[in-house]
Amino acid sequence: MEADASVDVYSKVLENQLLQSAKLVEEHLDSEIQKLDQMDEDELEHLKEKRLEALRKAQQQKQEWLSKGHGEYREIPSERDFFQEVKESKKVVCHFYRDSTLSGNLMEPPFQSQKKCGTNFTKVEKKTIRGKKYDSDSDDD
Known about the structure:
By secondary structure, this protein is mainly alpha-helical. It has a domain at 69-125. It is built from five helices and three strands. The protein has helices at 2-37, 41-67, 79-88, 102-106, 108-112; strands at residues 73-75, 92-97, 120-125. The protein has a three-stranded parallel β-sheet. It starts with a helix and ends in a 16-residue tail after the last strand.
């Protein structure tokens, strides 16, 4: 009995909170609609210009990303090219692989399907990048 009563109380409190939240959102939307209704032609033209400028910037950014190789999955042939790619992009997903392992080839299909601008998807063969852990192509590292 007590459990049923406490559930009823909690459900009523939750219902009231949701109702208050919905009213706040509705009031905000009503005020925005009222502002739009009261705009004159000059203000609407200004909004339109701002939106067109934002669309132009987005298109320009997309073209810049495409020119840098975003939206395609490709192999980087050298260490120098790798570092150049990483420096030019804010977001890079790089698949380090070895031809001698099957697991490296399993990662290819998911990466090949990525066509997102803004993130550069690349692959580098492990022996291409030299460093303390990558000087050999053995399986023990």
